[in-house]
Structures are given as structure tokens and as C-alpha cells.
């Protein structure tokens, strides 16, 4: 009764083109030491470049010359202090003073052309911004700064990718709020701020005492010969029964 079920359990049917299988194959190719060293093994089979002007040969010759020159002058370097009466040339006051004067002279001559020409600027208006843009582009250029060894493949819903995104968001939020955290707790007087001035202006606009003046508070006298007063007297005379 269970024989067919047991036989079916032992047979595994996995499609060869599922995303998991393809990802596993790509990861196996990335971490394969054989594929990583395949180009190096093929280069070793072709032999070595032993020409006289090859870079390793020239480097070895230069190292040999440097070492030979050092061994040749080793005794002389040890005997330098005995000639001037000091353990070394750096402790001799006269040599130290001469070295200091030479350094100052070199700095003055080195910066002389700069100080002479720093006040004479003959460049277009957009040259400074263009130069700054080029330098910024060179600093942020991934082509010159980074060299990728492998092209890794990962799914967007992996745990490490999700964790990295959350870490980036937290770091970005900390950098964004750095100025606010620095300003938090710093003392500040509100006198003269925008909100205080706006509140004062609004109070002056809404002040009923300044906006309106009662008639009994005004100091005025009626003009007797005004046109309306004269017309009122004429009408009173015309309507008078007397």
C-alpha cells in the first residue's frame, strides 16, 4: 500500500531553470577558485617574459643599485658625526641654522611667483565653476576610484539587503539631522525674530484703540458760515411762522 508513496518520495523533481537554481549556479561560478585562477593558470602555461627591459627586471636592478649605494655609504654615514663633533648632523647648531635658513629661502622663492600673480586673474567667469565641477567629477568617479572584481547577483528581498537598506536609511537620517542636533539646546533670544515681529505687527493692526478714535475725543469747533449751516438758517427763516 505504501510502496508507491515511498518510491515517489525518493524521486526529486526540480526544474533546472528556476530562479533559485540559476542563482545557485551564478554564486557557484563566483566563488569557484578554479574559474578565479583559470586566467592565471593559462598565463603560466605560456611562459614568462624575461626580456631585459621588463618591468620586474628593471625594478630588481634598481633595488640592487639602491642597496649597493646604501652599503657603499654605510661607513661614511656612521663617521659623519665624528667630523663635526656631534653625534649627528641634526644636532649641530650651525648646520641646523643653515638648514632652517635654506628652507625659509626655498619657501620664499617657491611662493614668489604665486604672490606676484595671485592678484592678476585673467580667466572667464565660468572657469572656476567648470574647474570645480571637473575636480568633483574626478573625486566621485567610480571608474577611477573603484575596480569591481566580480559582478555579484543577489535578490532584492534577501535579509542582508533589507538590513543594509535600513542601515543606510538610519545613517542618512543621522547625517540629515546632524545640524539640528548640534543646534538643540543652544540659547537664543526671541527678540527681533520673524515670529515676534509678525506678532507685534498683527497686534498693531488689530488694536481697536489705535484704529478707531471716538468723536468725543476729537477737538474741533463748528464753522458758523459753512454752506450747510447757511442753508439751514435760510430754510429756518422760510419755514418760520413769524
UniProtKB/TrEMBL annotation:
One of its GO terms (molecular function) is actin filament binding. Keywords: Actin-binding, Repeat. GO terms for cellular component: Z disc. The keyword 4Fe-4S does not apply. GO terms for biological process: cardiac muscle thin filament assembly. InterPro entries: NEBU/NEBL (IPR055297), Nebulin-like (IPR013998), Nebulin_repeat (IPR000900). PANTHER family: NEBULIN. This is NEBU protein. It comes from Pampusana beccarii.
Amino acid at each position: 500500500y505504501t510502496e508507491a508513496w515511498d518510491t515517489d518520495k525518493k524521486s526529486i523533481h526540480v526544474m533546472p531553470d528556476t530562479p533559485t537554481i540559476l542563482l545557485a549556479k551564478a554564486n557557484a561560478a563566483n566563488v569557484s577558485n578554479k574559474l578565479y585562477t583559470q586566467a592565471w593558470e593559462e598565463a603560466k602555461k605560456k611562459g614568462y617574459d624575461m626580456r631585459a627591459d621588463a618591468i620586474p627586471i628593471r625594478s630588481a636592478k634598481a633595488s640592487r643599485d639602491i642597496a649597493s649605494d646604501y652599503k657603499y655609504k654605510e661607513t661614511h654615514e656612521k663617521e659623519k658625526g665624528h667630523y663635526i663633533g656631534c653625534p649627528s648632523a641634526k644636532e649641530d647648531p650651525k648646520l641646523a641654522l643653515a638648514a632652517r635658513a635654506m628652507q625659509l629661502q626655498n619657501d620664499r622663492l617657491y611662493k614668489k611667483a604665486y604672490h606676484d600673480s595671485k592678484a592678476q586673474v585673467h580667466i572667464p567667469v565660468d572657469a572656476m565653476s567648470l574647474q570645480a565641477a571637473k575636480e568633483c567629477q574626478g573625486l566621485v568617479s567610480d571608474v577611477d576610484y573603484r575596480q569591481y572584481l566580480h559582478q555579484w547577483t543577489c535578490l532584492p528581498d534577501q535579509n542582508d539587503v533589507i538590513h543594509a537598506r535600513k542601515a543606510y536609511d538610519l545613517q542618512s537620517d543621522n547625517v540629515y539631522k546632524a545640524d539640528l542636533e548640534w543646534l538643540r539646546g543652544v540659547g537664543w533670544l526671541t527678540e527681533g525674530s520673524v515670529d515676534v515681529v509678525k506678532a507685534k505687527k498683527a497686534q498693531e493692526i488689530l488694536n481697536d484703540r489705535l484704529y478707531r478714535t471716538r468723536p468725543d475725543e476729537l477737538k474741533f469747533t463748528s464753522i458758523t458760515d459753512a454752506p450747510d449751516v447757511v442753508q439751514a438758517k435760510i430754510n429756518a427763516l422760510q419755514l418760520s411762522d413769524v
